[in-house]
Amino acid sequence: MCRSLFHSCLAVALLLSTIAVAPAQAPRNDLLEQNKLLSKVNADKMEQEVSNGLAESRKLAATDPAKAIAALKLLQGRLEADTALTEARRGALVRMVVARVQTMQTTAAALERTAPRKPLGGED
After folding, report:
1. How far is CA 23 from the centre of its chain?
2. pTM of the full predicted structure?
């Protein structure tokens, strides 16, 4: 009888310990899932920011290439500091932005060389 009482108590204790552990793990899993979701949302935001930045720089380059280049360099800095994107994706986006900066710099330099110069004197 004492032995069966001991086994019963042991079974109850074991059951209670698994019940106590299960709820403790559920919030941890929820936090992990929330963290993954938040990271994905932040990565998607950065992807959208890059897309918008590239599109805006294309428009701006027609009227103010220097401003477009400056905006792209700021975007490059934000990309390099980003932690939500995977390293491979961040690297690919940085290379894309750097290539766009180089293209715009080359185009701006070519336009500057071919643009007619205004006289320095007060000629009208």
Report:
1. 33
2. 0.67
Q: For residues 52 and 121, what is the distance between their CA atoms, to the nearest angstrom?
A: 42
CA distances from 50 to 25, 36, 63, 76, 121 (A): 38, 21, 20, 9, 44
Locate 119 and state its tokens. 């006289």
Report the residue count for the chain.
124
SS (HEC) of the chain = CHHHHHHHHHHHHHHHHHHHHHHHHHHHHHHHHHHHHHHHHHHHHHHHHHHHHHHHHHHHHHHCHHHHHHHHHHHHHHHHHCCCCCHHHHHHHHHHHHHHHHHHHHHHHHHHHHCCCCCCCCCC
pLDDT tens, the chain, 124 aa long: 555 555 555 455 555 555 544 455 556 789 999 999 999 999 999 999 999 999 999 999 989 999 999 999 999 999 999 999 999 999 999 999 999 999 999 988 887 888 776 666 655 5
